[in-house]
């Protein structure tokens, strides 16, 4: 998420679309395959250390060291793999010229609602005056 938001999109995201199940961030059937690959690549090498941590009788060699720094390894390895895959196979529909925040959408919706309420009030006044 850090690599995508800060490095790839530079903070230019469509916040309301994040909550739309059919929005621009749906990717492929709701799965961002770039993120899934990055997750698998960053977690898999630390699994022997996890096994050793659960059962110390199972020897794993130096893999236990990688497990001890799994958070930093996963952060940089996962972020790097995600950036490389996203540059090689970009999801063009997610790139934007500027960020769309929820406040902008709320303000637009509120102005549309007040405009439609005004139309209703005008029609009621016209109906009352003609009667």
UniProtKB/TrEMBL annotation:
Gene3D superfamilies, alphabetized: Hydantoin permease
Membrane topology, from the record: Multi-pass membrane protein
Location of the protein in the cell: Membrane
Basic and acidic residues bias spans: 116-131
Gene Ontology molecular function, alphabetical: nucleobase transmembrane transporter activity
Highest taxon listed in the record's lineage: Eukaryota
GO cellular component: plasma membrane
Keyword line: Membrane, Transmembrane, Transmembrane helix
Transmembrane segments: 31-51, 63-85
UniProt similarity note: Belongs to the purine-cytosine permease (2.A.39) family.
PANTHER family: NCS1 FAMILY PURINE/PYRIMIDINE TRANSPORTER, PURINE-URACIL PERMEASE NCS1
Name of the protein in question: Allantoin permease
Originating species: Psilocybe cubensis
């Amino acid at each position: 998420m850090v690599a995508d938001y800060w490095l790839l999109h530079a903070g230019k995201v469509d916040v309301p679309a994040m909550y739309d199940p059919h929005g621009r961030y749906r990717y492929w059937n709701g799965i961002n395959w770039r993120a899934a690959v990055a997750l698998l690549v960053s977690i898999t090498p630390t699994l022997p250390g996890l096994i050793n941590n659960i059962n110390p009788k199972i020897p794993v060699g130096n893999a236990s060291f990688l497990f001890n720094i799994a958070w930093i390894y996963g952060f940089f390895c996962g972020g790097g793999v995600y950036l490389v895959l996203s540059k090689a196979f970009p999801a063009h529909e997610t790139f934007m010229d500027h960020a769309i925040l929820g406040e902008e959408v709320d303000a637009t919706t509120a102005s549309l609602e007040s405009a439609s309420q005004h139309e209703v009030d005008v029609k009621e006044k016209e109906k009352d005056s003609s009667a």
